[in-house]
User: Fold this.
Amino acid sequence: MTLALIHSRARLGLDAPAVTIEVHLSAGLPAFQLVGLAETTVREARDRVRSALLTCGFDFPDRKIIVNLAPADLPKEGGRFDLPIAIGILVASGQLPASAVGDTEFYGELALSGEIRPIVGEIPLALAAQQAGRSLLLPMQNAIAAQQIPDAGVLGAWHLLQVHSHLLGQQALPAIPAPVATPINNPLCLSDVKGQQHAKRALEIAACGSHNLMMYGPPGTGKSMLAQRLPGILPPLTFSEALESAALYSIAALPAPGGFRQRPFRQPHHTSSAPALAGGGKLPKPGEISLAHHGVLFLDELPEFQRHVLDALREPLETGVVHISRAGRQAEFPAQFQLVAALNPSPTGHHLDGRASKEQILRYLARISGPLTDRIDLQLEVPLLPAGQLSQAQTGDSSAQVAARVLAGRERQLSRQGKPNARLSSGELERSCPLHSADSIFLEQAVQQLQLSSRSFHKLWKVARTVADLADCTEIDRSHLLEALSYRAFDKLLRYLRE
Assistant:
């Protein structure tokens, strides 16, 4: 047989489009030609595959070899096609029967010794192969990670000779070691933060309803400590959410954060660029907001980020997805993250220290656009602690106690509407969480008096619903609305500075 067809897949964002490797041997001067819109790393497979086959003792055909990666208009990158190309040459040259490859997809970069090196993006590959009804053969390191997908038909190998023996039926591939079960570990406890009961309460509400949160206050008041303890009170990821998060980390070639069901916590530095935050590159990769999918994106020193970088958050905060468009390539990544921001209210640290004028403070805070702050549900001050409180013993509920209340409130939301309160559209909010007419008028008057937007009206409504869920109340009452209004301190600060 002089023609072999091998199944594999390319990488395009979170998608894994099918690629057929066609290997044809023909008469003529010996040559190795690779076609099909292959990038440099793929074209270099010619030398890697040839050396690996010869090192392993296989005959390398002394003929003209044409390898076509179809479809021809789909860009291919990386070393993942080395192994399927090598298998295709073995089949086309008669060193393997065509029936041996069957409905198996092959992936792996070949070392010159024949060792199979890991690739990027094993989770999307395994999901796509499962949907297509095929098994897949991966480098062992990738196979261990892909085992998280039930009934995926994953095979793993360390070396090309192992694959050859398996396909001939001589020796089965080694069993894939079970992935090490890493328990969810949150060593940071909320009780470590002294005082700041109002901020702790806001953190509990944010965790329960998946609300965005912004904290401002002088340096050293505990803003970062509070943000870093948010993952410890969030409900664990569901299995489907954990798979989505694992898929994003696999295509970014990053290790998954903590345990399989632990929510990601991303804290990029304020010098990060817009592509680093939103994603991008010649071959689009997920940025920080996608790596925080189903988790927390913490932006410390918020005004120190460039304004256009922060404004890249506005659309994903509303839609839960980010669209990356580059010349010739587009990708869409999920970005349903929970934003937590912290900032000092002045370039000098405190707006009341007298070292900066109101105009200087307003210019500093103007680096955060109004449309961005309008998308943040909870905005509160974290003030300096009263004298003597730092030396007192630790008080307050532990993270485990708060997490139990958060989980109970989240379950009420899921049973009522199937999603956290912060994810409700305005129509879903009206149907699932109606307000009494008097309370609706009260909230609208409060929004007008505070000069807030229509978006803020609905965000206050959602926060009030979360407060009611934490209290196990079936209806929203006036006290819940008043508490929601108490978390709009940043708007009050800006009005004070403009006076």
Q: What stands out?
A: The CA atoms of residues 9 and 485 lie 52 Å apart. The chain has a mean pLDDT of 90.
